[in-house]
Amino acid sequence: MLFVCALILVSLASHDFSNIKSPPKFDGLNYPILKVKMNLFLKFLGVRVVKAITKEFVEPHGDKDTWSKATAKNYEANTKAQYALTQV
Questions:
Q1: Of 2, 3, 60, 86, which is most buried, counting CB atoms within 10 Å of its CB?
Q2: What is the pLDDT of residues 16-59, one digit of tens each?
Q3: CA 57 – CA 11 distance, rounded (Å)
Q4: What number of other Cβ atoms are within 10 A of residue 21's Cβ?
Q5: CA-CA distance, 30 to 12, in Å (whole number)?
Q6: Which residues, in sequence order, are CB contacts of 8 under 8 Å at separation 6+?
Q7: Torsion angle of alpha carbons 9, 38, 54, 4, nearest 10°?
Q8: 41 is in which domain, residue-wise?
Q9: DSSP secondary structure of 24-57
Q10: In this predicted model, what pLDDT tens digit does every residue of 71-83 receive, in sequence order?
Q11: In the chain, how many domains are there?
């Protein structure tokens, strides 16, 4: 475990954080490191984004103008989560 943490720190030290809007890319190697990086990236996008991945999403009904603020935020979080997962 300590070795994996050391690898993550080395990897993060060489990472360019100027483009934090894009998720980490998976090159087929070091999946444990990607898993940690992706988890951190999703948390950076917001707690609701992480929940959108771990909980079932229910598509809201009706016109978007009639949604509650919570429903709109959950919908936005789900969209961010879908986008992040398709960019890996």
A1: 60
A2: 555 566 788 888 888 998 888 888 888 888 888 988 888 888 88
A3: 33
A4: 10
A5: 13
A6: 33, 36, 37
A7: -30
A8: 2-86
A9: PPP-SS-HHHHHHHHHHHHHHH-HHHHHHHHS--
A10: 999 999 999 888 8
A11: 1
